[in-house]
Write a structure and sequence with these properties.
Immunoglobulin-like; Jelly Rolls; mainly beta; five-stranded mixed β-sheet; 636 residues
């Protein structure tokens, strides 16, 4: 029998404070409002990021079967080229992103997409055999608003669906890119990302929530990059991925035949609720989706520079060899002609050729030791399978290609790269109250800052002075904060030695912010982003300790099951009970996780005769902790 000897009293963690000269504070309140000192004399936002992405409604710009984008209904013949108008203003576009599909192929061959008015390169975007339907995402530079398609081999019909474009225009609101470590968001075979393990039925639609998951922030993301794979389809068909809450477009993202496993990279805008829909046309099929990155409205992400296709490696060439089972091919990014250019991600077309067995390839950055559990392309024996890959690049400057089974040759072509803005404020930090702050993490949603009623959250950065290129005077520091509701406010935080900003909140939830400097005429680039989560008082209402013996006796040496349970006020994720820490007598505290119901179970043994005193604390997800509860049981 277990008895509680003292009630549990809520207690918050120690306050957090700012260390640094440049700071701004967010005070608690009800509605977002900003008050700053000093008063701004004028401001200019950070310079427009080059290589911004502008997602578009999926639009079919080419279909040779139906005379869309071409004069007649004629397949593209062997060694023939066609010129296609993207429908975009030529001066605004540096490159386009399209889903390109070949179908009704009469023989083996390949298709190359390239800038209009230039010679076809010695690279390819899609490879096919007779009778195949093959999709692939393509990113290609644009000349005068047009792109060209070149076919080598059997004749083929070609379909192209526009997904978006890149621009350097400061007059167009675009998005910057944030690469992420690959993570699996959906697998209908195992109920990952879906309520139950089941394929998508004919003309069925599956909704996939992405904002606020897998490193994508809850607010501010405009589009996501997914590798979508159809597997075990019962018949031939296609999948369409599109923003939730919008009409089903008349385009497709990947096509498949009975029993085929087909991957394709997809760039898709998010719906207003941060989710996308996956639509299946015919039969049933399982679907797997891996997250590789996202686009955001903030300028703190990377901009894209198209290179045109450049071959990095072809293992069929002299001096190379196929990748064996479990083998790894490492490539320095510099082999793509980038030299010492510091890039955050590269856009590749990776093709598996001459595979001896069915398998898959995984492309990832680094020294080869942190391979993700995702895949980029799947293939069968002797198949030629291409897929576009957007892979982050870390300080090693290396990318890795892992082969699962059998041996396969690999062809890798570089199509462009992403670079982050540099030269903005540094050392962003945050914390609740006035104690030392945490250093900022650049990945959403960030760690928690616990904030008691009436306490502020304090943001800071390294002291300057900062100067934008060409500035003649010292600058003011601005902080651009997006709160959990999605509202973004740009306010003066002060200068290099004095900065203060008060926001009468924080709301509970995820925040993001960045800083820049301006003299009223010119501005510095933005800082790297800072993500954190705020949680107001989480009053833990009590810690209960019960045992399997109930009110019955406990005997020395008997097994004993203790159950800890706690609740806290509020329903946000930060206020959920995360764990318990317990100790018997004066022993060290043992941390155990709580389940979804805010409880945990411990199996122990009554080790000696007499009274056993148990000390228990409960913790919320955001770090709030209850005062220690002491309970006891008597072993006879």
């Amino acid at each position: 029998m277990v008895r509680a000897s003292s009630p549990s009293l809520p207690r918050r963690l120690g306050r957090l404070s700012l260390a640094g000269a440049a700071a701004l504070s967010l005070a608690t309140g009800v509605t977002p409002a900003f008050a700053a000192d000093p008063t701004p004399t004028g401001s200019v936002p950070p310079p427009a990021q080059t290589g911004k992405f502008v997602p578009t409604t999926p639009t079919r710009i080419l279909d040779t079967r139906h005379a869309i984008g071409v004069p007649g209904r004629t397949p593209v013949a062997n060694r023939a080229s066609i010129r296609v108008d993207t429908g975009l203003v030529a001066a605004d576009v540096t490159a386009v992103v399209m889903n390109v599909t070949v179908t009704d192929t009469t023989g083996p061959g390949f298709l190359t997409v390239y800038p209009d008015g230039t010679q076809p390169p010695t690279t390819s975007n899609l490879n096919f055999t007779a009778g195949q339907t093959v999709p692939n995402l393509v990113t290609v530079p644009v000349t005068n608003g047009h792109v060209d398609f070149y076919n080598f081999g059997g004749s083929t019909d070609v379909i192209a669906d526009l997904a978006g474009y890149y621009t350097d225009s400061g007059a167009i609101a675009g998005s910057s890119y944030v690469p992420l470590p690959p993570s699996r968001a959906l697998d209908t075979r195992s109920a990952l990302g879906t309520p139950k393990a089941a394929p998508i039925g004919q003309r069925g639609t599956l909704n996939l929530k992405l904002a606020g998951t897998h490193g994508i922030p809850p607010k501010g993301a405009t589009a996501v990059v997914l590798n979508v794979t159809a597997t075990r389809p019962s018949t031939g068909g296609f999948l369409t991925v599109y923003p939730h809450g919008t009409a089903l477009p008349t385009t497709s993202n990947l096509n498949f035949t009975t029993g085929q496993t087909v991957p394709n990279l997809v760039t898709v805008p998010l719906g207003a609720d941060g989710s996308v829909d996956v639509y299946n046309f015919l039969g049933t099929t399982d679907v797997v989706a891996d997250v590789f990155g996202y686009y955001q409205s903030a300028p703190t992400g990377a901009g894209f520079t198209p290179t045109g296709p450049k071959r990095m490696v072809d293992t069929r060439d002299k001096g190379h060899a196929p990748i064996g089972p479990g083998g790894l091919l490492q490539l320095p990014v510099a082999t793509g002609g980038l030299g010492t250019t510091k890039v955050s991600a590269v856009v590749l077309n990776v093709t598996a050729v001459n595979a001896t067995k069915g398998g898959y390839l995984t492309v990832f950055p680094g020294n080869g030791t942190n391979r993700p559990t995702t895949s980029n392309l799947n293939f069968g024996p002797k198949q030629v399978v291409p897929n576009m890959v957007v892979v982050p690049v870390d300080d090693s400057g290396l990318i890795n290609i892992y082969n699962f089974l059998g041996t396969t040759d690999v062809v890798v072509d570089l199509f462009g790269y992403f670079t982050d803005p540099v030269g903005g404020p540094t050392g962003l930090s945050y914390g609740g109250g006035n104690a030392p702050v945490y250093s900022c993490g650049a990945t959403a949603p960030g760690r928690w800052a616990t904030v008691a009623q009436g306490d502020p959250i304090t943001l800071g950065m390294d002291p300057g002075p900062f100067r934008a290129p060409g500035q003649l005077s010292d600058t003011q520091i601005h902080a651009v904060v997006t709160d959990p509701s999605g509202k973004t406010t740009d306010s003066v935080a002060g200068n290099a030695t004095l900065a203060r900003l008060t926001i009468p909140t924080p709301l509970s939830g995820a925040y993001s912010w960045y800083a820049y400097a301006t003299d009223g005429t010119k501005s510095s680039p933005p800082s790297k982003p800072c993500y954190f989560q705020a949680d107001g008082d989480s009053v833990i209402t009590g810690v209960q300790v019960t045992s399997n013996t109930g009110n019955g006796p406990t005997h020395t040496g008997d097994p004993l099951t203790l159950t800890f349970k706690a609740t806290s006020t509020g329903s946000t994720d930060g206020k959920k009970i995360a764990s318990f820490c317990y100790a018997e007598e004066s022993g060290s505290c043992t941390q155990i996780p709580a389940d979804a119901n805010g409880q945990a179970t411990v199996n122990t043994t009554a080790g000696h005769w007499g009274t056993h005193v148990l000390y228990v604390q409960a913790f919320t997800v955001s770090g709030w902790v209850a005062s220690t509860t002491s309970s006891y049981y008597v072993a006879g």
